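user: Here is a favour to ask of a fellow structure person. I have my own habits and do not want them to colour yours. Could you put it straight underneath, so I can go through it closely?

assistant:
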Amino acid sequence: MSGIPKKILLATDGSGDAALARRATVDIASLTGAEVHVTHSWHIPPTAFPTVPQEGLYEQRARRLLDKETHHIEASGVGVEGHLERGRPVEGVLKLSKQEGVDLITLGGHGEGKIERALLGSVAEGVALYSPCPVLIGRGGKEAWPPARVIIGDDGSDAAREAGEFVARMGVFFDIRVLMVQAYPQPPGISEEERASYAWQVEDELRVAEGILEDRAKELQGLLQERVRTRVVVGNPAEVILRAAAEQGGVTRTLIALGTRGLGKESVRMGSVAKKVLQASRGPVLVHPGPAG
């Protein structure tokens, strides 16, 4: 994995968060020379008036939106190719990303209204959890990009490692501080009699986990040329990551980076953690599927 994207696909719906994703796309492409593709998917929703000819109207509206987004990118001095797709957004984005061989997908996380927020939130989750390449989800308003801090959620998996390496390489272009966090889940159902012995066990295992995480952090320090802080915390992984992001009141200036797939049974757990983070984060999120194949 090179870590520096050579081809970026921006999936847009014209919302505020999509504009943030566009801004991030333009910044990254300007700094790395990446090729940019922008796509907008449209379809005719279920209607109580099926006899009314609407197909042309929906397509025209979609074309205008795509042309507007393409113009914004071109005005920034970045070359771009537009793709108008008919069908459900998740399927369209994933299909086009494979077709074009992109290295990074960017998109907004929420729409403007309640219905749009629900629909686009599910689109962001669907793309992020099933994409074969990293996905950057814009969220948090105009002040959210570029980020000042990065929280890397590390579970020891290859996907988490590559998420960290990806943002570390991107961090060369931005002035960011990095914190790697790892959650040590406390098993449920521990009796009072077992707590004392369990406390010793946790203390020993936390020391081991901290040492391993420090080694992973040193790998990133070689890319960033600065110290990467680490933290191992007992608790729910998603909650640990979100709390770290909310520290210092800088949640919208904080980018969360994590993997979507662990190893073996861990893939289910990490998919669940990534989904919870995507649903609850108030700032931008980058998810990485791990090594291809």
In short: The helical segments are 16-32, 55-75, 89-100, 114-130, 158-171, 192-224, 237-246, 266-280.
